[in-house]
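Progress note, sequence design subtask.
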């Protein structure tokens, strides 16, 4: 059996409109209700932030600080099998502090992969319909749990890429320093590409059965990782050298994993542009189920699942998605909704389901 992982207590201070919120979630289904604009997504954002060091809707964690405050603080008590730990995130425009049991972890990635969380929110449809960068981020998240160093390769690669482009633009394509950065890019970029390739394989293994299970009729899903660079560092270096003139002319690096794509197709047609909206939704759901499965496998624990805005009278398909996810995971789930009455869980005991109501950023009875 998978060891149990659950938040037992969450305290939020000064995050968006949440001045002071304290909840003690149950290990299974937690329903957060409230009208629009009252802080439901913010509460999920707080949970995501204290688990991953990131927000799923703000570019920078510092943006979440409540207007008029200097810092946002989130404290979570996490039950991880037999161990209980406290995770704390303190963020502000100039501060970022992440602590486990009061101590700074050796590396940020250690903190960010300690309590695995998967989020599903309305914007996720862009995973299928939006730019390739969103699919790269998904691959990177999968890679991070399996190979924590992949994040370092990515960071070092992107830093070297910016330096090289800068030199190219300022000093031209025969500047001597270029080779130093190209060597770095070749080494780190090849490692990143290899990690992404493995992440794509893992994701595909989980994605294909999930999609087949959820699709209404038999559809053929195609998934392929199309690298923008190569996993061979010698080839990578040579390609960078030969791309100098083009990269200067186009003001952007045209070779490398910054141009990776995870191509998705349904019955041979690109899902991004030619699948029906219903098919795109099922594929989005399947991608999330696949993320859940790969993170579960890497981490050896059932990830905590956050489902934002999942039920509305206008969109029964989203309500259906909740039940789909509840079948896919035995772990802790948080859902937000304007209509908790639409989420019927017959037979659920007090231990299985807890309901909260948010009004103007505070819990009300
Ligand atoms: N930095 C901030 N400080 C204070 N309030 C904020 C900040 N950012 C957003 N808000 C407000 O927080 C409220 C809660 O938003 P949100 O969590 O998205 O609500 P819900 O998901 O319930 O619709 C919104 O009314 C928004 O205007
Ligand atoms: Mg919301």
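Output:
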């Amino acid at each position: 059996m998978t060891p149990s992982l659950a938040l037992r207590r969450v305290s939020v201070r000064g995050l968006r409109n949440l001045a002071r919120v304290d909840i003690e979630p149950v290990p299974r289904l937690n329903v957060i209700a409230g009208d629009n604009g009252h802080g439901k997504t913010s509460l999920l954002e707080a949970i995501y932030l204290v688990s991953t060091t990131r927000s799923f809707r703000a570019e920078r964690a510092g943006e979440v600080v409540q207007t008029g405050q200097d810092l946002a603080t989130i404290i979570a008590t996490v039950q991880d099998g037999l161990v209980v730990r406290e995770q704390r995130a303190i963020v502000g425009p100039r501060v970022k502090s992440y602590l486990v049991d009061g101590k700074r972890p050796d590396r940020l990635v250690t903190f960010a992969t300690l309590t695995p969380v998967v989020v599903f929110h309305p914007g996720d449809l862009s995973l299928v319909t939006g730019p390739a960068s969103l699919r790269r981020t998904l691959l990177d998240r999968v890679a991070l749990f399996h190979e924590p160093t992949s994040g370092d390769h990515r960071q070092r690669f992107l830093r070297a890429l910016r330096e090289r482009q800068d030199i190219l633009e300022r000093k031209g394509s025969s500047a001597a320093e270029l080779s130093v950065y190209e060597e770095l890019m070749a080494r780190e970029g090849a490692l990143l590409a290899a990690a992404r390739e493995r992440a794509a394989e893992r994701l595909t293994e989980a994605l294909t059965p999930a999609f087949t299970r959820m699709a209404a009729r038999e559809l053929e899903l195609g998934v392929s990782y199309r690298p923008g660079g190569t996993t061979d560092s010698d080839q990578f270096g040579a390609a960078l050298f030969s791309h100098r003139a083009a990269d200067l002319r186009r003001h952007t690096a045209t070779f490398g994993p910054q141009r990776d794509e995870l191509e998705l197709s349904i019955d041979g047609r690109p899902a991004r542009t030619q699948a029906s909206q219903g098919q795109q939704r099922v594929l989005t759901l399947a991608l999330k189920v696949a993320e859940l499965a790969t993170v579960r496998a890497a981490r050896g624990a059932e990830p905590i699942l956050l489902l934002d805005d999942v039920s509305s009278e206008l969109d029964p398909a989203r309500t259906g998605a909740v039940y789909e996810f509840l079948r896919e995971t035995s772990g802790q789930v948080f859902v937000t909704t304007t209509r908790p009455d639409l989420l019927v869980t017959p037979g659920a005991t007090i231990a299985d389901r807890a309901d909260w109501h948010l009004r103007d950023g505070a819990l009300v009875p």
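Residues 16-17, 34, 36-42, 65-67 surround adenosine-5'-diphosphate (ligand 1) (CB under 6 Å). Work on this subtask will continue into the next period as scheduled.
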